[in-house]
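Sorry, explain these tokens?

___
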Amino acid sequence: MEEQITIDLELLLILNKHNLTIEEYMVLYCKYHSYNWLSRYRVAEKTYNKLINDEWLGRTRTLLNKHKEKFLYLTEGELPVKKSFTEEDLDKVWEAFPTTDKCGIHPKTRTLRSNKKDCKIAIGNILSEGEFTATQLIGAINSEVQARTSKSIRENKLTFMKNFKSWLTARDFEGWMDNDEQNDTTNNSAVGELD
């Protein structure tokens, strides 16, 4: 007796919209859920090649991270919630940015941290992308401030730092992220105004 499989019409429409066959969907489903069912079923090489060419799978036939969310959308019908953050996270990042460009013996020439509401919205947007954490942003702030203050013996290099809103909008923090993600484990103490 043959086993019957039923497929939801809505799923078929979604697969058609994304140019996927049932066999391709089955491969993605097994890869996404780490099921070993594919060992019992011989998937045609052309199916794997199409999924690799369409960038669903990598060369090692694993589901690419950038498409895990998209696959979840195919099966669940809605995008998952991005990494969450709290109001406390927003406040910690806000507090970490220096208030002015005052550095050591050099007097204040301008305010760096202002417009709290817009900055917190920008921080929230960055954190909701899920690529960076509040700790990483604080690490990036600390890295830039440390680099600028260590070079401020004769001249205040902190005066060249952008104000907080511009720094966030221009995504300057990305240049101060540690490649090995060491910022996630570093001290996330706030810098505040430098004296």
In short: Residues 179-195 have pLDDT under 50 and may be disordered.
